[in-house]
Amino acid sequence: TEAWGPDDDEPRRHHGPVRVRVPAKINLHLGVGPLRADGFHELNTVYHAISLFDELTARAGDTLTLTMEGEGTGTLALDETNLIMRAAKALAARARVPAYARLHLRKSIPLAGGLAGGSADAAATLIACDLLWGTGLTREELAEVGATLGSDIPFLLHGGTALGTGHGEAISPILARPTTWHWVVAIADGGLSTPEVYRKLDDLRAGSWPPKALDGPDDLMAALRQRDPEVLAAALGNDLQAAALALRPELADVLKAGSEAGAVTGLVSGSGPTCVFLATDAAHAGQVAAGLNAAGVCREAVTARGPMPGARVT
Ligand code: ATP
Questions:
Q1: How far is 71 from 118, CA to CA, in rounded Å?
Q2: Shortest CA distance to 132 belongs to which of 20, 16, 22?
Q3: How much is the ipTM here?
Q4: Domain that includes residue 139, residue range
Q5: Separation of alpha carbons 169 and 153, rounded Å
Q6: Is the dihedral of CA 60, 78, 142, 272 positive or negative?
Q7: For residue range 126-135, what is the model confidence (pLDDT) as tens digits?
Q8: Are 118 and 153 in contact, with CB atoms under 8 Å apart?
Q9: Are both 66 and 205 inside the same structural domain?
């Protein structure tokens, strides 16, 4: 299946199907600054890519088409509003090539879950179409194209564990000792709208009992340099959690059930409603997931590891 362009001076073009695997992200730290005049919040976040993957396949075609299977099939629009279509068109415009491809998504990352599944798919599309079309952009150039579509996309190209500033699109890798962390991901029934969660946070902050805002990510960065789950647990934090809990009070039951199932700690992932729990090792993660599934507080609890690489050809 590996058929490369004949001319070595040309950027490499892939004729066979290009298959790209892309991870979901969680935020180990999500500090949300005040609402600015331009309607955005300055973010200070530590992204972490986990082993829950979508897979995008790109084949040569004479128009641009998208099909899918798995999570969200029948719900997710496959038209030009889909981030995959938007990413393919943005890359084609940037590289001045026709946006022709047959794209197929195998989705495992739940929709509107706070795991950045849409951004993950866009990142996978950029990698796949770059190779299919032989556009030969650098990862930095792909990240620039991605950042125009969504703030999480540069991180999902990069993967690992990284600090995100600005709207989250300015990434700097965190050089930590290579440690694998073990997580349990509690997938909810239904999603939460990210803009709605931010609006709720603004409301709560304008009210009489504003939730305490996180300090900077320094404690978390220090904790990542150790291998102790208890130390990491104490440093995890998410400013959006109070807002997600206000919109979806039953998430408190999920967090409680995870703690009763023995998790070191738990928190809402990004804008929620997915909750993630830290475990000490793979076996412990399995026990916590089993406890959460038995409690019946979420659609499904699955184990995952991190950090994982970003969008990559398989
Ligand atoms: P984030 O954490 O980045 O806010 P999320 O994980 O909460 O994202 P996503 O699943 O990434 O949510 O996307 C939210 C919305 O984006 C979806 O409800 C859908 O309307 C739209 N969307 C567009 N393209 C995609 C895609 N390929 N996959 C998922 N959602 C998409």
A1: 12
A2: 16
A3: 0.94
A4: 18-173
A5: 7
A6: negative
A7: 999 999 999 9
A8: no
A9: no
Amino acid occupying residue 145? V
As a whole-number percent, the residues of the chain with pLDDT over 70 amount to 96
Average pLDDT across the chain, whole number: 94
CA gap 161, 310 in Å, rounded = 10
152 is catalytic: yes
Residue 230 backbone class (left: φ over 0; alpha: ψ -120 to 50; beta: rest): alpha
314 in any annotated domain: no
Strand partners, 41: 35
133 is a domain residue = yes
Across 235-260, average pLDDT: 98
3-state secondary structure 61-81: CCCEEEEEEECCCCCCCCCCC
Q: Both tokens of residue 146?
A: 């991605």
Q: Which residues line ligand 1 (CB under 6 A)?
A: 76, 82-84, 111-119, 121, 152, 191, 194, 270-271
Atom of ligand 1 nearest to the CA of 152: 3
CB 310 within 8 A of CB 55: no
Is the pTM higher than 0.90? The answer reads: yes
